[in-house]
Amino acid sequence: MLTRRRFLSSSVAAASTAAFARLPELSAAQYELLIKGGRVMDPSRKFDQTADVAIAGGKIAAVQPNISASAAAEVVDAAGKLVVPGLIDIHTHAGREKEDGALCLADGVTSLVDAGSAGADGIDAVVAVAKAAPNRMRVFINIGKKGIIPEGDLMDLANVDVAAARAAIERHRDTVVGIKARLSKNVAGNNDLEALKRAQSIARPLGIPIMIHMGQTVSAIPDLLAVLKPGDIVTHMYAPPPNGIFDDAGKLLPAVADARKRGIWFDFGNGRIDHFNWAIVEHAMQERVYPDTVSTDWGQAARTDQVFNFANVLSKFLMVGMPLDRVIACATVNAAKTLPAFKGLGTLVVGAPADVAIMELRQGSFEFEDNYKGKRTGRLKLVTAGAIFGGKRA
Ligand SMILES: [Zn+2]
């Protein structure tokens, strides 16, 4: 025999089942995922406050305080954490191994570029890795057709094969979205300018960017910058001399300032060998010469050395005094702007693809390293706590 209370509750259950049967759209949650209670930081619209992020149909559906948990099929508690647009790493070598994309996604990287691991000869394998990645991986083809090689990608101009590179790009137009030219003396010798001009002869008509790897080049940086067009990218911007961005007196070269004015992007590119030291980064901060984008130059060997992961690289800029929102911008909205293929990403505006990184901002004592075993201790460290790609938890 039913007690009155049990009778009532079973009646209510029956009634609501009937109501849902008549109106099936009411039975589905309004949102697939709700990220609750985090500090939402979206530099694309200078938004920084405690709020909830609701996701529906793989897109950002709402960003506001106090969205009801009952409106969502799944709730992620982000209290005490940062909620930022999915990180965009424009300089990695994550197209080398099939698991690389997943490793980067776990670090909060929802969109990334393999920047020049392969040239025309090896591009199909890298494109296959990119296409199978669980995040959005695109590829810059190395203008040297053998890719990164110990004897130097561009040392032999026979490897700077315009027809082969163009054919490779045309074969993979959806995935190969730019050209990489590594120009240091030990990579290109005296061929830096000629290789860059050949790369531009392909890139300009296709309207795709070139990323140059600067530092320790034979040619002076103004001569290299003169070949670049708006939208091209200079990585390793804090490379030590010869041919860094500062003159011997520590002043920014006018050609660098002019290049930035005409829309050429300057990227950090952590890497592991000869790309930056603390003295140059600290000097750059004093001179207010900030990066447009921060990237890792990540590869599997960097997982245990200097780079580790994107959050660790971003933390280095907190240590040298860049404000948090500026650092996050370098890894989100700014990075999206550098690449037509990433248009509309790097933001949490309603309607954007639901790519999100959840991060912790830890306080303590943390050691960071430059490319010359120089150590610095910082008081803040970003650590990725979770990632969402296209509305799905990684
Ligand atoms: Zn690289």
This entry's quaternary arrangement is single chain
Q: Note the beta-strand portion.
A: 25-35%
* Main sheet properties: 8 strands, mixed
* Overall body shape: globular
| Percent of residues in helices | 25-40%
Order of helices and strands: HHEEEEEEHEHEHEHHEHEHEHHHHEEE
What's the overall average pLDDT, rounded?
A: 94
Q: What is the number of beta strands?
A: 15
What is the CA-based Rg, rounded?
Answer: 24 Å
What is the distance, rounded to the nearest whole angstrom, between the alpha carbons of the first and last residues? Answer: 49 Å
- Catalogue the unreliable spans: 1-27
Total of DSSP H or I helical runs spanning 4+ residues: 13
- Summing up helix and strand content along with how strands pair, one would put the structural category as alpha/beta
The kinds of small molecule bound in this structure are:
zinc ion
